[in-house]
Amino acid sequence: MSVASTTAAKLVHHIFDLQRAVRCVAAASLRGDDTGVALQGVLRFVGEGETRATHLAERLGVSAPVLSRHLSELVDHGYVVRRPDPEDGRAQLVALSPAGVEKLRVIEEHRAASLQSLLQDWSEDDVEETARSLKKLAESLRNSARAMTAGSTDTTTFVEE
Predict the structure, then answer these.
(1) pLDDT digits (tens, 9 = 90+) for 9-19
(2) pTM (2 decimals)?
(3) d(CA 105, CA 20)
(4) Options 2.30.280.20, 3.40.30.10, 1.10.10.10, 1.20.1640.10; which CATH number does 35-121 get?
(5) Which region holds residue 25: left if phi is over 0, alpha if psi is between -120 and 50, else beta?
């Protein structure tokens, strides 16, 4: 099954519109918070479990220096801890501190409550259908990106992280 170029172009337009809308909503709800959208994104990925900083940079699609700056700020806030990787002393492992776990919980609760408020005119089915579609789109994009990075067009060999 193939998607027509006009349909793909329309989807790209809607994705960009969605990104702008999400940024506007996030910016409005972050006033006075000690973490911005970028730091919250890093916090979320670190919250998935202890990992090497280099692996985290790859997953986030940012350079090592950019991630290092974000991590330094999160460490300064007390949300992230770093330690040497026992398998490679040159590498660092990063994880959430107890304060980081709590901060992430508060952020996610706040985001869910904000979205719930903004979607008052949506049905539960509308939200679940949208969530399924967004999940499918994200998985397809991730698998395609992994295939391109690996130099392969076969995405069946990749395992979800």
Answers:
(1) 999 999 999 98
(2) 0.74
(3) 24
(4) 1.10.10.10
(5) alpha
